[in-house]
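On clarity, I found the account of how folds are encoded harder to follow than it need be. Since the whole study asks how a given chain folds, the encoding of that fold should be made plain. For the editor and my fellow referees, an illustration may be useful. An entry of this sort, consisting of the sequence and the corresponding backbone structure tokens, reads as follows:

:::
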Amino acid sequence: MRCCDVEALWDEMRAGVEPRREHVLAHLRACPACQEMYAEYEGVAYCLSCLPIVEPPRNLVPKILEHIRTVRDRFKAIAPDSFATVPSPLGKLHIAWREAGITFVAIDRGEVLEDVCKTVERRLHRPVKAAALPTWIAAAVKDFFRTWRVDPRVVDCSNLTDFERAALHKAAEIPPGEVRSYGWIAREIGHPKAARAVGQAMARNPLALFFPCHRVVDANGALHNYGYGIEVKARILKMEGYRKV
């Protein structure tokens, strides 16, 4: 059994976001699938609590440290994404890419470049390295600010979950200069109760602008949260021609 809200919660936790107890309890009360799993795990937890406490083997710590070193070395061995900064009508954009396409786009907020690289690496779970900006990326950025759309063949979102991909691709279907709600996206992708999970997918969007989470608003039409601030969200929508009725 799988639950899209729980998948989104795991994504949040991997990103270091502490889940809020009231949200977890509210979801558990409303989700039969999770209630069934919870009952099973509760039984397992009770059985485990009845077992005697066992001291860990003396060689456990060295094994854990060796595992950490292995994971670290594996991370270093992964081919890094290329990384560069490109000017745009919105200001500087930080862009990462692989052979398969653009993997990350961020609007410059004045951070130290080293900190930007660390943020990209945490989101992509692999290293990045500075490189010369290829002409095809410069052309993709120029075309986006001309049409407010991006050719899906130039982006690579293979590291996202199925739910994240579905939510972001649906956001890309919103016409430039228009907005839709988180609930609308949730319904359109077949998860009508997952508006909050859609919001988290928008918040973790690694391809800002290209997957236009700025076109997603709350149920009342308010601009709601945006990683770069509501003022930037309003500015982008205004550039696209959006006029709130």
